[in-house]
Design brief:
Blueprint lengths: L16 E3 L18 E4 L3 E9 L2 E9 L9 H42 L5 H21 L14 H13 L7 H20 L1
């Protein structure tokens, strides 16, 4: 956790989430500046809590237990964790690829700014072509931005959200639904990453 503190007494909470991964694209996955993304809940077990203020650090241990009112098996949670660990590297690659598209778009914007009042017909044509290519590639990953809410099940981020949610959003033994969602994401992932 990296909360922003104000002068005086401050309180922060840990909701038992693990360190997360920054998601690709925008919309509901975009984190605020310097906000650390959260991941799935941690598994029951012993954890070390470390607090740092300026150059003073202290730590303590805590034991995370699962709610005893729920019928949850640790081996089911471990199986879900393993599925998440399979998904995680691909999620990082998709995020890195969309970051590359963002960087390319920014660079083209800087070039456009430098040549906007000059007569560089070939360069302007090339710039437009590159921007169109970036837009096409981005729309393979995320739906175009529109006013209001829109879901496009054909883009990679929709398949990623479904796989991520089915793996991390439940406590029972993973079944066919989770595996099918991962396979759907995996097949779309291979096609899109190859093009980017």
């Amino acid at each position: 956790l990296n909360p922003k503190f104000e002068k005086g007494f401050n309180r922060t909470y840990w909701s038992f989430e693990s360190k997360g991964i920054r998601m690709p694209g925008g919309g509901m996955f975009r984190q605020k500046e310097n906000e650390e993304p959260t991941g799935p809940n941690v598994l029951p077990g012993d954890y070390k809590i470390k607090l740092t203020y300026k150059n003073v650090t202290d730590s303590t241990s805590v034991k995370v237990l699962f709610d005893p009112r729920l019928n949850v098996k640790k081996e089911d949670l471990l199986e879900r964790q393993n599925l998440f660990n399979e998904l995680k590297p691909k999620l990082e690659i998709v995020t890195k690829a969309t970051d590359g598209l963002d960087a390319a778009e920014k660079t083209i914007g800087l070039v456009d700014e430098k040549i906007k009042d000059k007569n560089f017909a070939e360069l302007n044509k090339l710039s437009k072509s590159i921007k169109d290519s970036i837009k096409t590639l981005r729309e393979l990953v995320t739906a175009p931005r529109v006013q209001g809410m829109m879901t496009n099940e054909n883009v990679l981020s929709s398949k990623l959200r479904r796989a991520y949610g089915s793996v991390t959003g439940y406590w029972d033994k993973p079944g066919d639904t989770e595996r099918i969602n991962l396979m759907i994401f995996e097949s779309a992932y291979k096609v899109v990453i190859e093009r980017i």
